[in-house]
Amino acid sequence: MGSVSLKIGDGTARFKRASVCSSAVNLLMLFSVITTNLFALYAFTYHPTSLHHHHYPKNISLISEKVSLILREIESSQKKLAQMEKDLLGYESIDLSKPNIAKELKEFLTRHQLPLGKDSRTGITEMVASVGHSCEKSTDLLSQFMNYKVNGLCPDDWSLGQRLILQGCEPLPRRRCFAKTIPKVGLQPFPVSLWSNVSEKSLSWSGIGCKNLACLNSKKLNRDCAGCFDITHGYEAQRYVKPRSKNDFHIDDVLAMSSGGVRTSFDLGGGSGTFAARMAERNLTVVTATLNVDAPFNEFIAARGLFPLYISLDARFPFYDNVFDLVHVANGLDVGGRPEKLEFLMFDIDRVVRAGGLFWLDNYYCSSEDKRKALTRLIERFGYKKLKWVVGEKVNGAGNSEVYLSAVLQKPVRS
User: Fold this and answer.
1) How high does pLDDT run on average in the chain?
2) Are 408 and 402 contacting, i.e. CB atoms less than 8 angstroms apart?
3) Least confident stretch, 73-77, 289-293, 408-412
4) SS3 assignment, position 361
5) Which of 92, 110, 185, 191 is the most buried (most CB within 10 A)?
6) Which residues contact 362 (CB under 8 A, 6 or more apart)?
């Protein structure tokens, strides 16, 4: 079986740029153009002195040979450029002929012809699987993920799947096995579930260091989740309604700033789902995007009667344009790496917010003045109206002062 090229799904490309390699590509292209033009000039202007008028057929044959040589040179240059482009992008197709490729992975990635031929509405003739192209860099892990008994129980390997996602292998391939089920005991009816303790027995603890909620609440899992699983007694029970500093905005004050009202919202990196819970109290719909890094965030959010979306912030959001009235994000913007990575995220956030909708930046940690200025310049490029903009200091657990930025911005109407 030959190699199958992966379909690059929306937002699955992770690019690697290297100025040296880019310069090499440009030089190669310039060299190819100059070389082929010189060949052409030579071929069409060369007239051997030994040839007479009656040797025209031989002269034409010589020109034909040189043109063929030029075409072969062009084809060779194009192949070299294509390979260099793949090297720059970090993209290669998965070679399904390799012996270490799982049988189910081959089955999933193999193109399947439509049984009735070409579809009249879409124009497609075959079904092509969608999987993150960066999966090629994790072929061994991917084959391990796809090594299971068909129609049997899936291995308890969600942490392996998340590891692949964090390495850029997103979306993951589908599998033909039954996911592990956990009895959901002690679930409360909505809306009581919003602020009721979640039973630890209803959560999956495999692949997680802590094995109970008390352990999770004793740790600072990230800047947005310090004791965030204590939704009855800790600060989480007061969050968004009892501000502790000028950077903490009351949720009702933010909602009052919206023109046209708020119906649907998108929360990025929403911790244990408290923002979504506050919105649900006001009969508003929120989708919370989060992974299960060091804690069972998705199951906990779902147990509260809320909607978790298991997706990384490197993936293109699976929503149509201009569908949300409000997007809420805290330190989910702290993506690290190249500035372009943050730009891609910001443009995708801007894409899903409707015109006149709100972008709520909630207590974004500015680790340096340069970082704050860079984010400020990026936000200003979008032309948002600053409804509220607060830069304040907080004292951390070590007694050191930290700078945070909170803002409520309104997306403009663009023609």
Assistant:
1) 84
2) no
3) 73-77
4) strand
5) 92
6) 249, 328, 329, 330, 406
Task: Specify the 3-state DSSP secondary structure of 230.
Answer: coil
Nearest Cα to Cα of residue 403 among 274, 201, 253, 246: 246
Q: Which residues contact 346 (CB under 8 A, 6 or more apart)?
A: 333, 378, 379, 382
Q: What span, in angstroms and rounded, lies between the C-alpha atoms of 326 and 313?
A: 17
pLDDT in tens, 203-232: 999 999 999 999 999 998 988 899 999 999
Structure tokens at 367: 């680790």
Closest CA to 288 of 321, 330, 236: 330
Q: Percent of the chain, pLDDT > 70?
A: 83
Distance CA 172, CA 146 (A): 10
Buried b (16+ CB within 10 A) or exposed e, 135-167: bbbbbebbbbbbebeeeeebeebbebbbebbeb
Contact 248, 268 (CB under 8 A): no
Q: Which are the contacts of 386, defined by CB distance < 8 A and separation ≥ 6?
A: 407, 408, 409
134, 14 contact by CB (below 8 A): yes
The dihedral built from the CA positions of residue 281, 283, 284 and 288, taken in this order, carries a sign that is positive
